[in-house]
Amino acid sequence: DIQMTQSPSSLSASVGDRVTITCRASQSISNYLNWYQQKTGKAPKLLIYGASSLQSAVPSRFSGSGSGTDFTLTISSLQPEDFATYYCQQSYSNLSFGPGTKVDIK
Amino acid sequence: QVQLQESGPGLVKPSETLSLTCTISGGSVSSGSYYWGWIRQPPGKGLEWIGYIHYSGGTNYSPSLKSRLIISVDTSENRFSLKLSSVTAADTAVYYCARILRRPKVPMELYYFDYWGQGTLVTVSS
After folding, report:
1. With a cut of 50, which residues of chain A have pLDDT below it?
2. Which residues of chain B from 66 to 105 reach within 8 Å of chain A, CB to CB?
3. Is residue B106 less than 8 Å (CB to CB) from chain A?
4. For A51, left (φ over 0), alpha (ψ -120 to 50), or beta?
5. Nearest 5°: phi and psi at B87?
6. N or C: which end of chain B has fewer CB within 10 A?
7. Do B110 and A99 touch (CB under 8 A)?
8. Residue B106 has pLDDT above 90, yes or no
């Protein structure tokens, strides 16, 4: 099984900050990596697929990069509605999620 | 706009079988471009992929749940279902159904969850 890790597990940031979240796979997954945002009590929402492709209607302040084992999700200027938990998910071998990164208000 | 809605008992006794159904509106379970999947989230914890099915009946299950799991599809009712047997308190979670888009890519398709149900809490307790 492919194990996914994320760092940090949580972070505090202010509106306007640039935020970077890292996801690492236990083996190379090429760019079979997706990112989701989940707000409390809601279903996850797809942000990025294929490591760097922005899902339709997702704001351009979200971007993804990486390939192989190391990936990043970047929010260029954090907005109030971006405080949430973010998950990476691989589809290279079966499917699995990272443990999540919670972004809260500093 | 595709919508998915989970339904089923909110309380299941230990050792019994958890059964949930996901009804699709605004789209067809018979579309070959998609898989239809289940994900769960224990209270306060992260997401766990459970399994998925194609309308043709092909399935793929999480290795950790495979021995207790059956996912089926009903094309006439435009829905798919999950049965998880021999449940324990560790199976208490919010269960989500979701559509999996199969994006063509070399060397193999990329899968991601593009539409989700709202989720339903299932508690395992006597």
Report:
1. none
2. 96, 98, 103, 105
3. no
4. left
5. -75, 155
6. N
7. no
8. no
